[in-house]
Amino acid sequence: MKKVNSPLIGKNLTDLKEICEKHGVESFRAKQLFNWLYSNDIKDFNDLTNLPKVFINILKLDHCIHPLEFVQSTKSNSELTNKFLFKTRSGSLIESVLMNEGNRVTLCLSTQVGCALDCKFCATAKMGFKENLNSGEILDQYLLIRQKVKKPITNIVFMGMGEPFLNYKNVIKAAHLLHSPDGINMSTKRITISTAGVIDKIKRFTKEKEKFKLAISLNGTTNEQRSLIMPITLKNSLDDLLDASKKYTESSKRWLTFEYVLLKERNDTVEDANRLITLLTEIQRCKLNVIPYNEIDGEFQRPNQNQIQTFMNKLRSARFPVTIRWSKGTDIDAGCGQLAIKNNSM
Ligand code: SF4
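# iron/sulfur cluster complex -> structure
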């Protein structure tokens, strides 16, 4: 049977020190290797120019560099959004989306192949759940795209395919690797993890005092209404979610963002806007992003312009900041909730 080498991307300093120790290599080489892997755009072992040949030969025995293979990229008509397709070593396909807005360049990373949460408005949900991505597969989307684009990537959102908090360990490890000052050195303020509301993991995130930004996809103003749109509500009730959110902001003293996908005749009434004001006023340091729905082939529609305006006008009296976000890249199915691999084999 052919031996499968494990990729080095995704390993943290502790993992690399263990590799050095196993082969009797001085531990300072681990830090050098870490720096090479994450601070430089390397393709293969030939790019590791200042590491001893003997060390590289040891690494080559059991390892390769990248866990992902680039397949293709597609640009939106505006050229401001770019969708990237990658293949994992198990043969699954995943997508990442790069969005340009002035000097801000945001990369949206996938964390799972498909998703089990079955949010009714989401294209990824239609794929079902296939597998979790490991930390290397999550981080390599960033590293391979960084090699291909001219402008520096300024922000990361874990908001692509999958529910990040159902792959908690690998997502948090990838986020720490993005933040590590010895490598990519991205500020925690520029890294956002977005969840559909996995309450036990919100509590863990709070308890472990993670400094990354947190966003919660709310999308409903009563338990019943939200359950119809997001079945996760059946086991993670709206009340409990808001309670965990409140405790997060109180304990962390950080801002929390609620995302609200606006769906015609499902959650777009004046009563919904009023309920949102009541529910979120309870939570210190929160803001609300309203996202008019990007239609996919399904049962949901975007409200018309008048309805969106009426909803937004009502929210003007809210004591928390409210913004409207029009997804970019909808012409290439790269908008919020549109990511899905139509045929997961290539
Ligand atoms: S919206 Fe997010 S959590 Fe919900 S099904 Fe889609 S990918 Fe999963």
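# post-check
The two ends are 24 Å apart (CA to CA).
The first helix runs from residue 13 to 22.
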